[in-house]
Amino acid sequence: MTSKKVSSSRSVPSLVALILKTAGVVITLAALLDMFILPLPYQFLDRSWQISFVTAWVERGIVPLVGIVLFLIGFAVEGGLEKEKKSLWQDPRFWAYVLASLLGPCVGAKPPHPLVHNLFMNAVFTVGC
Predict the structure, then answer these.
(1) Which of 1, 12, 26, 47 is the most exposed place for a label (fewest CB within 10 A)?
(2) Amino acid 70: pLDDT
(3) How far is CA 62 from CA 31, 33, 67, 92, in A?
(4) 88-93 long-range contacts, Cβ below 8 Å, gap at least 24?
(5) What percent of the chain has pLDDT over 90?
Protein backbone atom coordinates (compact mmCIF):
# COMPACT_ATOMS: atom_id res chain seq x y z
CA MET A 1 0.00 0.00 0.00
CA THR A 2 1.51 3.21 -1.09
CA SER A 3 0.17 6.55 -0.06
CA LYS A 4 -0.46 9.21 -2.64
CA LYS A 5 0.63 12.73 -1.94
CA VAL A 6 -2.10 15.24 -2.40
CA SER A 7 -0.83 17.92 -4.69
CA SER A 8 -2.44 21.28 -4.55
CA SER A 9 -2.71 23.69 -7.41
CA ARG A 10 -1.03 26.43 -5.38
CA SER A 11 2.12 26.31 -3.34
CA VAL A 12 2.06 27.45 0.29
CA PRO A 13 3.99 30.71 -0.28
CA SER A 14 1.67 31.80 -3.07
CA LEU A 15 -1.39 30.99 -0.93
CA VAL A 16 0.05 32.97 2.02
CA ALA A 17 0.84 35.85 -0.34
CA LEU A 18 -2.71 35.82 -1.68
CA ILE A 19 -4.17 35.81 1.85
CA LEU A 20 -1.92 38.69 2.96
CA LYS A 21 -2.71 40.78 -0.11
CA THR A 22 -6.45 40.17 0.21
CA ALA A 23 -6.45 40.97 3.93
CA GLY A 24 -4.44 44.13 3.29
CA VAL A 25 -6.82 45.38 0.61
CA VAL A 26 -9.91 44.60 2.71
CA ILE A 27 -8.51 46.26 5.84
CA THR A 28 -7.38 49.35 3.90
CA LEU A 29 -10.67 49.83 2.05
CA ALA A 30 -12.78 49.19 5.17
CA ALA A 31 -10.72 51.67 7.21
CA LEU A 32 -10.89 54.37 4.53
CA LEU A 33 -14.63 53.85 4.16
CA ASP A 34 -15.02 54.10 7.94
CA MET A 35 -12.93 57.27 8.05
CA PHE A 36 -15.16 58.97 5.48
CA ILE A 37 -18.52 57.71 6.77
CA LEU A 38 -17.79 58.42 10.45
CA PRO A 39 -18.04 62.25 10.30
CA LEU A 40 -21.40 62.31 8.47
CA PRO A 41 -23.08 64.79 8.21
CA TYR A 42 -20.19 66.97 7.15
CA GLN A 43 -20.16 70.39 8.81
CA PHE A 44 -17.03 72.09 7.55
CA LEU A 45 -17.80 75.47 9.15
CA ASP A 46 -18.41 74.10 12.68
CA ARG A 47 -15.18 74.35 14.69
CA SER A 48 -16.04 71.56 17.15
CA TRP A 49 -16.87 69.25 14.24
CA GLN A 50 -13.50 70.05 12.66
CA ILE A 51 -11.68 69.16 15.88
CA SER A 52 -13.57 65.91 16.34
CA PHE A 53 -13.04 65.02 12.66
CA VAL A 54 -9.28 65.50 12.82
CA THR A 55 -9.09 63.67 16.14
CA ALA A 56 -10.99 60.69 14.72
CA TRP A 57 -8.87 60.76 11.54
CA VAL A 58 -5.65 60.71 13.57
CA GLU A 59 -6.88 57.98 15.91
CA ARG A 60 -8.01 55.70 13.08
CA GLY A 61 -5.21 56.60 10.69
CA ILE A 62 -2.90 53.74 11.51
CA VAL A 63 -5.39 51.07 10.41
CA PRO A 64 -5.16 51.69 6.63
CA LEU A 65 -1.38 51.89 6.94
CA VAL A 66 -1.37 48.44 8.58
CA GLY A 67 -3.49 47.19 5.68
CA ILE A 68 -1.00 48.61 3.21
CA VAL A 69 1.85 46.89 5.09
CA LEU A 70 0.03 43.54 4.88
CA PHE A 71 -0.51 44.11 1.16
CA LEU A 72 3.16 44.85 0.58
CA ILE A 73 4.27 41.90 2.74
CA GLY A 74 2.13 39.73 0.48
CA PHE A 75 4.23 40.84 -2.47
CA ALA A 76 7.43 40.23 -0.50
CA VAL A 77 6.34 36.69 0.41
CA GLU A 78 5.46 36.05 -3.20
CA GLY A 79 9.00 37.09 -4.06
CA GLY A 80 10.24 35.90 -7.40
CA LEU A 81 7.18 33.82 -8.30
CA GLU A 82 5.86 36.50 -10.63
CA LYS A 83 8.34 37.06 -13.43
CA GLU A 84 6.41 39.35 -15.75
CA LYS A 85 7.36 43.00 -15.74
CA LYS A 86 4.60 45.58 -15.50
CA SER A 87 4.82 49.27 -16.13
CA LEU A 88 4.91 51.50 -13.07
CA TRP A 89 1.29 52.61 -13.46
CA GLN A 90 0.02 49.01 -13.66
CA ASP A 91 1.90 47.78 -10.59
CA PRO A 92 -0.39 47.74 -7.51
CA ARG A 93 2.61 48.27 -5.24
CA PHE A 94 3.11 51.72 -6.77
CA TRP A 95 -0.44 52.73 -5.85
CA ALA A 96 0.01 51.31 -2.34
CA TYR A 97 3.11 53.50 -1.91
CA VAL A 98 1.23 56.56 -3.23
CA LEU A 99 -1.63 55.96 -0.78
CA ALA A 100 0.81 55.44 2.10
CA SER A 101 2.65 58.66 1.26
CA LEU A 102 -0.65 60.56 1.21
CA LEU A 103 -1.90 59.05 4.47
CA GLY A 104 1.38 59.27 6.35
CA PRO A 105 1.53 63.04 6.98
CA CYS A 106 -2.22 63.34 7.61
CA VAL A 107 -2.41 60.68 10.30
CA GLY A 108 0.66 61.53 12.35
CA ALA A 109 0.77 61.52 16.13
CA LYS A 110 -1.29 63.97 18.12
CA PRO A 111 0.59 67.09 19.20
CA PRO A 112 1.40 66.93 22.92
CA HIS A 113 0.68 70.51 23.95
CA PRO A 114 -2.69 72.34 23.49
CA LEU A 115 -0.98 75.32 21.84
CA VAL A 116 0.74 73.05 19.35
CA HIS A 117 -2.57 71.24 18.86
CA ASN A 118 -4.30 74.52 17.94
CA LEU A 119 -1.52 75.38 15.48
CA PHE A 120 -1.82 71.87 14.03
CA MET A 121 -5.58 72.23 13.60
CA ASN A 122 -5.20 75.60 11.84
CA ALA A 123 -2.52 74.20 9.55
CA VAL A 124 -4.57 71.12 8.63
CA PHE A 125 -7.65 73.08 7.62
CA THR A 126 -5.62 75.79 5.90
CA VAL A 127 -3.55 73.39 3.80
CA GLY A 128 -6.36 70.85 3.40
CA CYS A 129 -4.49 67.70 4.38
Answers:
(1) 1
(2) 93
(3) 9, 14, 9, 20
(4) none
(5) 22
